[in-house]
Design goal:
four-stranded mixed sheet; 8 helices; homodimer; globular
């Protein structure tokens, strides 16, 4: 049985990453999404194990200590991170897995699993990035400018990624991500069973 | 302007490579096909520069001497080979190029241009390979067995390729090759212009 592949996907605010990801999973439900472990309290409507595993600070710190995380981060006093074991188990079982993280998370994972393929989702232009960030209409100019500067900071680090896809039209962006994922299924390592079969005249 | 990419495509007798290639060029006419130089006489119906460049033995030997070929081979006393310059020019101009060669040609090219991406087209099973080779109905059992053993010899070297695609249904095989080619257009190197544009607020 050949192994699956880990794909790291990042996209700044305004890249439309969430819309792209849900369209991607709708078209290819066999691709698994990694679930983060976090220490912040559960919010109304959230379900344990759906988007996050809610664990205690002590559990999280023990995972850090025992090197059981692929990446982790602190945000507003809470820990966020990706447990290593479920990712390894998924890949070993032959499934492809996607991990949604920011540029810092992506860097941590690449250093631990260099064979992971990283994809950065870009807005199609600066004008469109600005339009999308303002477009929400609910935030103050200050908040928008902070988000814009953070987005540009992430885009400046797109060179750390293997692939860059542009989200102009959602379905076309999904097509592009699928080219990358499906091409990986065609590498020699993942096709060697077929070759064995033909050579053994099965 | 970002560079194009060179794709080496091989497929044994019975892989259906020719059908796959013409369907591929029909769907993506922007992809260029490399034209071989050969020393055998032109046959009726052949046109100079269409599938081959017909050159003299002396010209060919001078190209070998001056290292102007990416690969070459002798078949029934005639030289066959791929001139280096048109391939380099095509890639530098930003176009993708496909080179159709056998396993020996692929090996020579990979040693000179390790960045080229190689793809091997497989028949879907041993039974289907046999069926396709017998199916022509025009050859003796001896010729068929020779072709079958040569095909199995090539398949045994599929491990030298980056990717392996199966030609069960032609259009699906073309989709697979396109995943590989189109994914290469999304590598960071080929998207860096867009990133510059967004960062420079163009």
């Amino acid at each position: 049985m050949s192994k699956g592949k880990l794909f790291i996907i990042s996209g700044p605010s305004g890249s439309g990453k969430d819309t792209v990801m849900s369209a991607l999973f709708q078209r290819h439900p066999e691709i698994k999404l990694s679930i983060s472990s976090i220490t912040r309290p559960m919010r109304t409507g959230e379900v344990e194990g759906e988007k996050y595993h809610f664990i205690s600070r002590e559990e999280f710190e023990s995972m850090i200590e025992h090197d059981q995380l692929l990446e982790h981060n602190v945000f507003v006093g809470n820990y966020y991170g990706t447990p290593k074991k479920p990712v390894i188990d998924c890949i070993e079982s032959g499934s492809d897995m996607i991990l949604e993280v920011d540029v810092n998370g992506a860097k941590q994972i690449k250093s631990k699993m260099p064979e992971a393929i990283s994809i950065f989702i870009m807005p199609p232009s600066y004008k469109e990035l600005e339009r999308r960030l303002i477009g929400r209409g609910t935030d103050s100019m200050e908040v928008i400018e902070k988000r814009l500067s953070s987005a540009l900071g992430e885009i400046a680090r797109a060179s750390e990624y293997d692939y860059v896809v542009t989200n102009d039209v959602v379905d076309r962006c999904v097509d592009d991500i699928l080219h990358i994922i499906l091409a990986q299924r065609l590498t020699f390592a993942r096709q060697s069973n077929l070759i064995e079969e033909v050579l053994n005249k099965c």
